[in-house]
Amino acid sequence: MKKIIPFKKEILFKTNINEIVSIALDKDLKIDKDKVYGTFKLYGEYNDYEENKPFSIDIPYENYLDDELVLDNATIDIEDFYYEILEEKKLIINIEIKVDNIESKPLVEREESVSETFEESTYNENNYMTYRVYIVRENDTIDTICEKYEIEKELLAEYNVLNNINIGDKLIIPNARNK
User: Fold this and answer.
1) For the chain, where are the alpha helices, taking DSSP H only?
2) Domain count of the fold of the chain
3) CATH classification at residue 135
């Protein structure tokens, strides 16, 4: 998977900019845990209505990424770069940074035994039901979940709204064996 990160920077020149004669952009970017950081080096020549003048600007960069991403094999490159002159002294640069070879952290099946109980209509010390919390994963259906936990769909429906389940939803799974 890849992610494009837009970056925009306004650079103020001391003299007027008639035109950019030449421009180049180098990067020295790194990835560390959950962030991309480093420096862009922007250099070239501009004309100030009288003569061509060189410029060289170091632009620090830091951007935190989603902590649900695995960046171990990620690579960084510049996807696109463009600029515009604004008000004769401002150079606006736009950089699209491509972070490639990103992986999502795997969805971990988490089953939690919970010590809470559901009281039934007539309370009795021995009349309770334990349950689990199940997080819906890819390719799960109501039928496969019922089969896995050996419960009837009707019993599952007593504890959950089943008409629209999605990946990541939590379902209460009553422990039918303790009934």
Assistant:
1) 142-149, 153-159
2) 2
3) 3.10.350.10
